[in-house]
Every structure is written in structure tokens, then in C-alpha cells.
Amino acid sequence: MTGKQRVVAAFSGKPTDRTVWVPFAGVHAGKLKGYNAYQVLTDIEALVSSLLEANRLYDPDGQPVVFDLQIEAEALGCKLLWSDRSPPTVVEHPLAEDYAIPTSVPGPADGRIGLCLEAMKRMKAEVGDRTALYGLITGPLTLASHLRGTDLFMDLILQPEKAVDLLAYCLEVARKMAEYYAGTGMDVIAVVDPMVSQISPDHFNEFLSPVYGELFSHIRSMGIFSSFFVCGNATRNIEPMCQTRPNGISVDENVDLIAAKKITDSYDITIGGNLPLTTVMLMGNQAENARAALDLIERAGDRRFMLSPGCDMPYDTPSENVIAIAQAAHNPDLARSIVQACENSATDSFDIPVEIPDYASRAFPLVEVFTLDSSSCAACTYMMAAAKDMKDIFGDRVEVVEYKYTVRENVARCRAVGVKNLPSIYIDGRLAWSSIIPSRNEFKAEIEKAIASHEV
């Protein structure tokens, strides 16, 4: 099956050949190419090249194109505050003082909407045959909060008619954005509304059920799958959300995914999530990330489940951690053996003597590629291919060797060399790249320097 076929099957309640993997790499994708959040969310070339790198490195079944809940707000006049490591935040709310609800919705050329549409078209052309692409729109409650500010929550109590009118307007914006994105060939329209976790089921049913029921019906009428993304502890609203009839619901680590899945299963809705963003993905190591992924895979079962981060992953999430999660989804048996090897290594059961080359006395450079397994790990495959390319270029003037972590002696070698992350490339015993695949020109330059040092 292709990744796209797996996503379609999961949303349709059909079996898949393995767990579906959908990493939410928003601004984090920019880090893979050296771009900050502002660059990756404002420059089409930076955005597309970053998305393609995330696709190559993480081998996803599904992938969001832009993860920025301020796109619509900016087009409607909200002032944004930008950060280097996260999407912007709304700092001024146009309706905070003058509660005059707009009468027109943003067009495809307003704000950064055109940037999103162009990125979607280009990604569709590049990877759309094998990867399900997600177009993310801002949910009506969150967009209303952007426009009105925190007073919106008092409006629900003190002037509900006004709140209903504002939510109705935000629904029209969402409908139109869904149409724009559908026109680029997006496979899934994901409605992201983190504010849903902040209201009661009674308020959800009164104010949001009609809005979301209409929105998901509209998306369904276009022949596209829909997904309802929430953040925070939305446990109490899982069933009301299901009753609005999306094809899928995604939750973060504040929700007991297995308990929530019992509810979503009863409505024939697929659930996604909910790897911890900070404690595991940002701060954990590869073994901890693989273990967390395997635990979710085993507990959630093989129907109507998608393995994902709890939300948009932090900018500084180590790419090697995401690679470990991808490996758990792609090849859980191999991932289990690697986790076991790491655990055994920690107790010195891999205290095997290994011979470290005398790099300085060699006649030519030695390129050592430490991988999970280049035959099954996509990132490892590309990294090994880059090393083989150098062998093709330089021939006998360089030696290339791969050390797969699935081999017992190589676990000991990783420890002896001090390899912290997989995959990694070492040149003459020096770490050159860790989890980032170098460009051909970068790699050539490093090899040429190493050859020159051996010729002295």
C-alpha cells in the first residue's frame, strides 16, 4: 500500500498493512533545512523545500502542508507577533472594541492564503501520488477568539446572539477556506480548533454542534475526508465532537487515547494521536520515542488509528526522535529489537570489544554510516545513498562502510565511538552529520578536505 492508500483505508475503517503514520511537522520542517519559523511560513521556496525534506526524512503516510492557525486571522486584519521557533500569535483583535462582524470572507489572494495554495499545488505535484496531503483550516471557535479576543467566552453567556452571529461568520470563512484547499487537490481537510477544550459540552452542543455539523457536511459534499484537531484536555467533548460527523478526530497527550477510541469507534470515526510533544518528542531519546510509539500502536490496535504527535511538533524536536517513531510505524518488529538493544546496552550486556580504526595512519578517508537499517529506515536509506554517491565520485580515494544497529557488534561500536543518534555519518571518526542528510556539494567538500589531510 502507498501512504495515501493507508490514510484512505484508515478513514474508511478498512485494514491497513501497518500503522498509519502522520507527523505534524509544521515549522519543525523548516529546521530541517535551516529556516526559522518566519521564513518557512512566508517564503514559498523555504516552505516547499522544508516540506519535501520532512517527507523524505520521515516517510509519512499523511502530511500537513501548512500548520499555522493565524492564516485566516491575518487575512482578516489581526496583528501578528512573529517568533523564530513557533508560528505567530495574534496580539490585536479587530473586534475587541468595535464588535462589527465582517460581511465578506478572505479571497485566495489575501494575506498568506496564496502562499498556502501554491505550496499545496507544488506538494501535490511532488508527492501527492503516494502521500495524503492535509489542508489545515482554523476552526470557527478559535478564529472567533482571534477576532474578538477573550471576551468571546463572556459573550457566550452575556450576549449569545452576538456570539452565534460571529461563529456563523467564522463558519463561512472555514467553508470558503475548505473550498480553496480542496481545489488544490488536498486529500484531507483538517479543522484545527484548540479552543474546543476550553468550553463545556453544554456550550459545545449549543454553539458549536450546528456549526461543525454544517462544516463537516460541506467538506463531505466535496468528496474529501475531514479531521477534527483539538488540543488540551478535550476528553469531555469527544462524544459531542463525534456527533458532528468528521471522518477523524486527533487529540493530544492530555486525552486518554484508548478511552477516547472506544467512543470514536462507536461512531465509526478514526482517531489520531497522541505522542507527548515535550517530555518524549522534544526531550526524550530515540529509544524512548520508539517505545512510546510502539506502546500506542499495541494499545490502539490496527483499525481506525493513526499514529501522530499530539499536535504540531516543537521546532527543536530532534529529527532522530521523529525518525525513531517513523521506524516504529514502518517496522515495529525491528523497532522493538532496537529498543531492546538500547535497554540491554544500558546494562552493559553489549560490552563487546571492538577495534576502532587508526584514522590518522590510513592512506584515504573512512566514511562510517551508523544506521538503524538502511534497508528499512527511509532516513537511513537516503543517508547511506548519499555516502554511496561519494564512493561513486571519489572511487578508491575513499572507503564507505555501514554499521546497522540491528547487528550486536554494531551496538557496541556505537557505544565505543560515542554515537548518540541514528542515522549519523562520521568521517575519519569525526561526527559530520547527525540525522540530517547532507547535500551532495556539502558532502563532496568534506570528503575533499579529508583527502587533502591524508595527502599531507
Folded structure, characterized:
It is built from 19 helices and 14 strands. With 456 residues, it is of the alpha/beta class. The protein has two domains: 3-338, Alpha-Beta Barrel (TIM Barrel); 359-455, Glutaredoxin (3-Layer(aba) Sandwich). Strand 6, helix 10 and strand 7 form a beta-alpha-beta unit. The mean pLDDT is 92. It has an eight-stranded parallel sheet with strand order 1-10-9-8-7-6-5-2, with helices on both faces. A four-stranded mixed sheet has the order 12-11-13-14, with helices on both faces. Strands 3-4 form a two-stranded antiparallel sheet.
Q: Brief overview, please?
A:
With 456 residues, this protein is of the alpha/beta class. The chain is built from 19 helices and 14 strands.
